[in-house]
Amino acid sequence: MKRLISIGSVLLLVLGLAAVARAQILTGSIIGTIKDESGAVLPGVTVTLTSPAHPSGPATFVTSETGEYRFTRFRSSPLATAPKRRLSGSAAVVFGNYWNGTAEQITTGITYKVPPWFTASFNTNTTWAHLPQGEFVARIVTANIDYSASPMLSFSNLVQYDNRSRNLGWQSRMRWTQRPGNDLFISFNQGWIREDGESDSLRFHAQDAKLAAKFQYSFRF
Predict the structure, then answer these.
(1) How far apart are CA 40 and CA 45, in angstroms?
(2) Pairing between strand 134-150 and 118-131?
């Protein structure tokens, strides 16, 4: 009996450590060394990392005295509820290399669903970047509202604000399906910008507005 209790305690400890490990995982690590044709290492060489999986854009590094470059990102998700719930939420922290410096990033999201008719979500993305050229904070706030009046008629709306560009944008789209394969799309886009010197004001000036329509028709033969 004592042996069984000891084995059970070890299993609980291992499972507990595994749960902690899942809370902080290594999301990406790229390590390499730059050498010339003779095999000698090359310090001070600029290396640019480009990938669709890197949402912040190309990352630039300078090789060390040993010719090595390193790109590492960590991610921790302290909150993540099941997306199938009517009300779900998530929060994540990402830190590590960013361009030619480092950054910490916090993303949050909350979604409310009344399937199959209504879905609303609110998401934030805040990045604290530390670069040799200076430091900055980038914030992106996004809201989505989708409504389906029927399987044939649906409306979707996207509102997003970016503090770096000071742009506020709204995109609204309607889709009407006359029959499978025959669809009418109508979209409306409106932009606003907060002028320089108005960082403490919530007043926005309207920019461009665009209305577009597209009809898709399928021939069957």
Answers:
(1) 13
(2) antiparallel
